[in-house]
Amino acid sequence: MMQRPPTIKDLARALNISVSTVSRALRNATDINPETRQAVLKLAKEMEYEPNFIAQSLVKKQTHIIGVVVPSIDSNYFSEALSGMTDCAIEQNYHLMICQSNENEVLENKSIRKLLSCNIDGLLISVSLQTKSDNVIKEAQKKHVPVVMFDRIIPGADCTKVIVNEYEGALKAVEHLIKKGCKRIAHIGGPKDLSVSENRKKGYLDALAKHKIPVREELIAHCKSFEEDAIGAIRKVMNAKPRPDAIFFINDLSAITAIEYIRRKGLRIPEDIKIVGFNNDKVSNVVEPALTTVMQPGYEVGKLALGVLIDEIESKSTERQLFELRTTLVTRKSSR
Amino acid sequence: MMQRPPTIKDLARALNISVSTVSRALRNATDINPETRQAVLKLAKEMEYEPNFIAQSLVKKQTHIIGVVVPSIDSNYFSEALSGMTDCAIEQNYHLMICQSNENEVLENKSIRKLLSCNIDGLLISVSLQTKSDNVIKEAQKKHVPVVMFDRIIPGADCTKVIVNEYEGALKAVEHLIKKGCKRIAHIGGPKDLSVSENRKKGYLDALAKHKIPVREELIAHCKSFEEDAIGAIRKVMNAKPRPDAIFFINDLSAITAIEYIRRKGLRIPEDIKIVGFNNDKVSNVVEPALTTVMQPGYEVGKLALGVLIDEIESKSTERQLFELRTTLVTRKSSR
DNA sequence: CTGAAAGCGCTTACAG
DNA sequence: CTGAAAGCGCTTACAG
């Protein structure tokens, strides 16, 4: 019994040839006798030889490891993106090292530095809410590690970016309500100063403008955080006179919170008031009424971001690109 | 300007000492002159020296990389576990390589083998629904890679396991309903033959037995898949005569699906019928009525599983252990 | 306390 | 087509 896994040395000895020849046979080089090659491959299989990835990395100076940093793994959207990346990685023979910043810039920087010290071939990052500076990104690039930002980007950063056009998603959602005949469309937004909140609100405002519907400030309210205190914002817009005939929400959970509030007011959804969420959470199809919502292609974002990064790694291209994926409006009963 | 990152060779040359001495100074060895040590450390800082992780791995024959395989990254429960592992990993100076099997045993095996060829120091796995054999686990162990299974385990496998006592969670949930005075408690189960389904159903049955409540088959129904076709199962149990006064669901989504069905029947929750879910999805606190549910400590499972694996890696212990974490019953309006 | 040497497992010019 | 040699960046006995 062999205690340790076999190496090319073991193969070479067993076949009475040199390690260089074994190495060449293994990696499909052209200048190798087909018979020698077959013999090596056969023995390699028998001995269950596996190339030592670490040793290869050291000499080739590339690890095929890609570092990924997201704000939180445990979030609907990011876990979808990670899923896309992971599937793509295994296909393309890359490996992912995933870290989360927990929305903390210090931890984010620490994670990136740790990843860099692992000699990652590339970095995929979606920045924390706190992150303003792209210094660590520059650090990576100085080490010739290509960087691709996705979803939560730093607009000024000098790297390729993959984002979702949430603005257009919001615009489509609100135009859908307008086509349904709604005239007094309210908006429950997310925390101010966040690009997601701003993009979606801008879509809302532009849809109104496009259809010459005046903006009424009393129909707009913001949640301080994403999931809590939605009820305060809902109460505010529902108290407007005349009351809204539709509400476009920053996310599905706040929309679902509103369903019961609206029911208590004696109003029917969608007859008296239509509602639209954002995200297409699984539950949006389970609640009653089923929720119309804007689906973001998280899985595709992940897949594309990784694909683009691999292209940069392999072609050593330094061209910066901006990829924008589109949302899909999923219409259900809540806006029929 | 230095084109490539500095190595210990560069440090040695600059200080006119040998690489062995630099190496010792860097890693805190005892047999080193404190002054030499200071000088090396100072220069290392100035030159922004970072030890080459790959080179270290090659000589030390350990990578500090842990391979993780889950059925799907993009699932509430597993993303929580991954989150716990990730936080734990960075603290303990390990790195995670995460793969997903997409519930496919072939892909699972492929992922494990890829991870092994990366010389992972340990393997953390939650197996796919298809997986029956622990062959690949044995393969890993033959290579002296410790394995810890979590959540979805192969009962017979010879390795340390970290699981959640779902049985007890279900038992507590049903006893809670019994204490509330319910006499005709129904159960909507998950796909048959799945250990999750079986464990939770057993908790239900044992709670009834413990309180001498007879089991009525017409109050038990199974969903074929987790999220779809819940409505058929709900209809079945709601048609039992006399009708149930409580339902214990396999998960929150099926419970939420039932809310509207029950409302349409003209029944009130919780007055006429109480309901309890499983998982504590975010939405369970947003729906009306807010859902009583069983919380599984996914984050803690991840943290513990990784901690235990690291212990095995570092102490080279081969003792097999079984860790069982407990659920928490979160009582809300739907069962008051 | 320090240095020279060997080695981790592989790849890749270079000579033949 | 094949082999000897050098090297990737580090660690670790071994001598001194």
**CATH architecture field of the largest domain in chain A:** 3-Layer(aba) Sandwich
What is the first-to-last residue Cα distance of chain A? Answer: 70 Å
- CATH-assigned homologous superfamily of the largest domain in chain A: Response regulator
CATH class descriptor name of the largest domain in chain A: Alpha Beta
Q: Helix coverage percent of residues of chain A?
A: 40-55%
Question: Most extensive interface, residues per chain?
Answer: A-B, 52 and 52 residues
Largest sheet of chain A: 6 strands, parallel
Which regions of chain A are unreliable across 5 or more consecutive residues at pLDDT < 50? none
| Strand order, sheet with most strands of chain A | 2-1-3-4-5-11
Using the coordinates shown, work out and report the CATH topology of the largest domain in chain A.
Answer: Rossmann fold
What structural class do you assign from the helix and strand content of chain A? alpha/beta
Radius of gyration of chain A: 26 Å
- Percent of residues of chain A in beta strands? 15-25%
Instruction: Tell me the domain tally of chain A.
Output: 3
What does this structure look like?
The structure is a homodimer of 336-residue chains. With 336 residues, chain A is an alpha/beta fold. The first copy, chain A, has three domains: 8-51, Orthogonal Bundle (434 Repressor (Amino-terminal Domain)); 61-164 and 299-325, Response regulator (Rossmann fold); 166-296 and 331-335, Response regulator (Rossmann fold, 3-Layer(aba) Sandwich), CATH 3.40.50.2300. Chain A is 43% helix and 16% strand. Chain A contains twelve helices and twelve strands. Chain A has helices spanning 8-15, 19-26, 34-46, 53-60, 76-91, 105-117, 135-142, 166-179, 195-210, 230-238, 252-264, 298-315, and strands at 65-70, 95-100, 122-125, 147-150, 160-164, 185-189, 220-222, 246-249, 274-278, 292-295, 322-325, 328-330. In chain A, the strands form two sheets. The first copy, chain A, has a six-stranded parallel sheet, sandwiched between helices. Chain A is elongated, with a radius of gyration of 26 Å. The first copy, chain A, binds a DNA duplex (16 and 16 nucleotides) through α2 and α4.
